[in-house]
């Protein structure tokens, strides 16, 4: 027995084997593993290789490619060479594939090109040598003894080299054959016939011809492998098409993906796998996928889910950012909230305006967008930290801050501070960015101020919350109220931050008022314990007063007037003019109410009678006060209950609301005045001198966006379309009238169109950001609290911008993932 090798010997042998393997040709250089000879020739067991032809490290194209930084550079060089070759008269001439007198290595693509374009066989005349001999066209054929004329398809002639050569041997010949001249070129015209006959009878030539036919019939190893890859890619495209459709459906509908245990054996496998299995019962593609053995790739893992969700989210975000970059201006809207994981999430919203075109490139509409591009973790709470984070976000998304024309935040000090708030810092960088305090937040603050400054109104809402808690904290009492109620309405919880909360509470109380009082009376007599009876009696005594009914009527009228405005303000396509008109209408209604106390009093009186409450005020106990010598008689306190309610509650409530509406929306009023020259109503009503003055002021504020020619454009527009302008109600209508309805003349009023776009871009509220928080709470709930930030942001983008998500072309995503997957199989 031989002695076992030592460890050093084994390592040395392993290194030698690796070096030997490295010298072997690659798989794609093989065309046929073995060639069986005919009965006339001995059996040949040899491999047919591509001929590398005299390597030259400095000049060979392959060596040049290997010295490049990456394969892309090599591909570019070869692509340029092929482009030059294709322009020549004979693209398959062997001379086209010589680099510095050396035949370069041919790739599979080169061979396919040469085979598909046919041999180089010019018909002459042919160049003669020094003794007058040359190639003849008759050499292209051979004639048998019986006179049969047979073509020598292998024989080619290079008009550039003035040599003939064998195309199969050039493409697929053995490097060790003796007749190398039939690869590099044959020009011994004195012995041409003998040389041709000797070569075509040689075994290497026959082997090369067999390899040529095999390659031509697509039976090579590479072709079979590529066909298998294509089949795999097509299959995975079908699979991914279904997986992406399922992912889109779940993401757009805010449905969770994951289960407790994600495998086929458990019942709690999650909704994603459940839907795939359901579709697999009716779809053969998914049926085959699910029947694959355990451990094989199926593209159903959580990692693949995240990959697809991220790809879809990035595609939607890319499309939105593309529209933002194309828009002439944009505004930035932002707000933040804390998620279930106690992480401060910042919502990024961009408002912009674009023109929609039909297939014929004709404008059909002007659309105001407020688009969501994702959540981001707040890195700090100070304005300086938020400013830096904002600029980083702009840079990352390639958004030009020079186009920023509006900022929309809520009333937080670090966001809206005049001197060091975020809006002040942004305006320092971009002075043209107008800050607009959220109109919806402002309106809610108006209501809150009217409540907290009047004791009776504040006590009323506190008692209303106590009433809700009294019934909601007991399942039995809540069920009892539901059973005796004549309407399918339940009491609502009061939330001071939710804009419609107070109105919802009052509506529910009005509808359930009689049932509530009856039930409170019953509980105060038949309650289970003293505490329950006492609370019921206290609530009953309070709510059956006429004062309370009058407060319900007054607050309902006020909130109904403001509720309509609040709902319309939350629309994403509302502009400043429409918002201002709505607020002005609400203000006028409140002012009218101030003179209608008697009507309100009579209405409350009728309601009280119908509810079984005596319509009399609670008597005010006369307090004994010390009277000083200089005190006037009219300084006495009011002792009449009706007069007290009228002056101290009714008038004060309305006066606070009127004052707050005028004060809090003064900034919006200033912006409207700045753009007053492009408002349709002003264009019609003002004379030309007034329009010139207002337009000049607008141009001076936006000298980077507008020219002084805007003055002439507005006057000319008024003279041309005065009758039509009177029918327009908003700046949006004006822009649509010019750009869509009369698109042929839009080029005559470029500055007017720009001013309209500028006005429509300025934000009104941050309601879109608030709505994104609703999605945040649905997507990242207590069961999904460990979700990654990338997945959260991508799911939110897909859900909020579902219209864009459903319209994206997923073929690129499918092709990329399918090709990546199919390559893993080899």
TrEMBL record:
Coiled coil: 576-607
GO molecular function: protein dimerization activity
Keyword set includes Cell cycle: no
Keyword match Coiled coil: yes
InterPro entries: DUF4371 (IPR025398), HATC_C_dom (IPR008906), RNaseH-like_sf (IPR012337)
UniProt keyword terms in alphabetical order: Coiled coil
Region (Disordered): 1-21
Domain HAT C-terminal dimerisation: 748-803
Sequence ranges assigned to domain DUF4371 in this UniProt record: 221-421
Official protein name in the record: Zinc finger MYM-type protein 1-like
Organism annotation: Macrosiphum euphorbiae
Lineage: Eukaryota, Metazoa, Ecdysozoa, Arthropoda, Hexapoda
């Amino acid at each position: 027995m031989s002695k076992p090798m030592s460890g050093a010997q084994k390592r040395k042998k392993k290194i030698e084997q690796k070096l030997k393997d490295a010298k072997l040709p690659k798989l794609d250089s093989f065309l046929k593993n073995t060639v069986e000879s005919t009965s006339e020739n001995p059996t040949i067991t040899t491999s047919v290789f591509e001929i590398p032809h005299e390597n030259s490290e400095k000049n060979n194209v392959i060596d040049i490619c290997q010295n490049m930084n990456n394969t892309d550079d090599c591909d570019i060089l070869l692509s340029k060479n092929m482009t030059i070759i294709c322009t020549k008269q004979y693209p398959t001439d062997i001379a086209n594939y010589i680099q510095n007198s050396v035949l370069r290595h041919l790739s599979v693509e080169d061979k396919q090109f040469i085979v598909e374009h046919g041999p180089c066989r010019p018909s002459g005349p042919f160049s003669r040598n020094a003794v007058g001999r040359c190639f003849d066209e008759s050499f292209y054929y051979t004639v048998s003894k019986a006179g049969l004329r047979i073509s020598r398809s292998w024989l080619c002639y290079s008009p550039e080299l003035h040599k003939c050569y064998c195309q199969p041997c050039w493409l697929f010949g053995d490097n060790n054959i003796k007749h190398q001249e039939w690869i590099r070129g044959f020009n011994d015209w004195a012995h041409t016939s003998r040389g041709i006959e000797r070569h075509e009878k040689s075994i290497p030539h026959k082997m090369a011809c067999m390899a040529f036919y095999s390659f031509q019939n697509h039976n090579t190893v590479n072709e079979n492998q590529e066909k298998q890859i294509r089949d795999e890619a097509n299959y995975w495209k079908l699979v991914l098409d279904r997986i992406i459709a399922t992912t889109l459906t779940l993401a757009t509908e805010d449905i969770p993906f994951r289960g407790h245990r994600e495998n086929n054996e458990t019942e709690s496998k999650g909704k994603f796998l459940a839907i795939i299995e359901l579709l697999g019962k009716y779809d053969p593609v998914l049926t085959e996928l699910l029947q694959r053995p355990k451990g094989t790739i199926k593209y159903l893992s959580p990692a693949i889910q995240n990959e697809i969700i991220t790809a879809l989210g990035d595609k939607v975000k890319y499309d939105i950012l593309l529209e933002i970059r194309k828009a002439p201006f944009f505004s930035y809207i932002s707000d933040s909230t804390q998620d279930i994981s106690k992480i401060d999430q910042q919502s990024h919203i961009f408002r912009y305006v674009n023109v929609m075109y039909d297939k014929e490139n004709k404008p059909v509409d002007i659309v105001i967008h407020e688009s969501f591009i994702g959540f981001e973790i707040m890195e700090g709470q100070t304005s300086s930290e938020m400013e830096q984070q904002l600029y980083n976000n702009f840079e990352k998304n390639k958004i030009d801050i020079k186009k920023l024309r509006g900022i929309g935040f809520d009333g937080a000090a670090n966001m809206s501070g005049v001197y060091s708030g975020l809006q002040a810092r942004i305006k320092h960088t971009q002075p043209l960015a107008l800050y607009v305090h959220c109109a919806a937040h402002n309106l809610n603050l108006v209501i809150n101020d009217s409540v907290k400054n009047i004791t009776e109104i504040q006590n009323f809402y506190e008692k209303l919350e106590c009433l809700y808690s009294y019934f909601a904290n007991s399942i039995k009492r809540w069920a009892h109220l539901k059973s005796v109620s004549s309407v399918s309405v339940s009491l609502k919880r009061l939330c001071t931050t939710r804009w419609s909360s107070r109105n919802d509470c009052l509506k529910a109380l009005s509808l359930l008022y009689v049932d509530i009082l009856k039930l409170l009376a019953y509980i105060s007599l038949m309650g289970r314990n003293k505490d329950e009876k006492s609370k019921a009696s206290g609530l009953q005594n309070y709510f059956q007063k006429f004062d309370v009914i009058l407060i319900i009527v007054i607050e309902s009228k006020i909130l109904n007037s403001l509720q309509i405005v609040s709902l319309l303000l939350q629309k994403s396509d509302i502009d400043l003019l429409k918002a201002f008109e709505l607020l002005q209408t609400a203000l006028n209604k409140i002012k009218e109410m101030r003179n209608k106390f008697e009507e309100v009093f009579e209405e409350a009186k009728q309601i009280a009678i119908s509810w079984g409450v005596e319509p009399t005020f609670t008597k005010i106990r006369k307090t004994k006060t010390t009277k000083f010598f200089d005190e006037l008689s009219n300084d006495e306190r009011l002792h009449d209950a009706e007069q007290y309610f009228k002056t101290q509650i009714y008038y004060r409530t309305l006066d606070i609301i009127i004052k707050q509406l005028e004060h809090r929306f003064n900034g919006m009023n200033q912006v409207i005045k700045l753009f007053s020259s492009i408002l349709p109503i002003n264009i019609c009503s003002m004379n030309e001198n007034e329009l010139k003055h207002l337009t000049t002021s607008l141009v001076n504020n936006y000298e980077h966006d507008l020219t002084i020619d805007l003055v002439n454009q507005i006057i000319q527009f008024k003279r041309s379309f005065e009758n039509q302008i009177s029918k327009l109600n908003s700046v949006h209508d004006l822009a649509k009238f010019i750009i869509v309805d009369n698109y042929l003349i839009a080029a005559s009023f470029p500055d007017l169109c720009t001013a309209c776009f500028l006005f429509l871009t300025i934000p009104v509220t941050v309601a879109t950001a608030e709505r994104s928080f609703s999605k945040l709470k649905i997507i990242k709930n207590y069961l999904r609290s460990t979700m990654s930030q990338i997945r959260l942001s991508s799911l939110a983008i897909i859900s909020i911008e579902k219209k864009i998500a459903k319209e994206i072309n997923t073929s690129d995503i499918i092709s990329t993932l399918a090709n990546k997957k199919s390559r893993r199989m080899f």
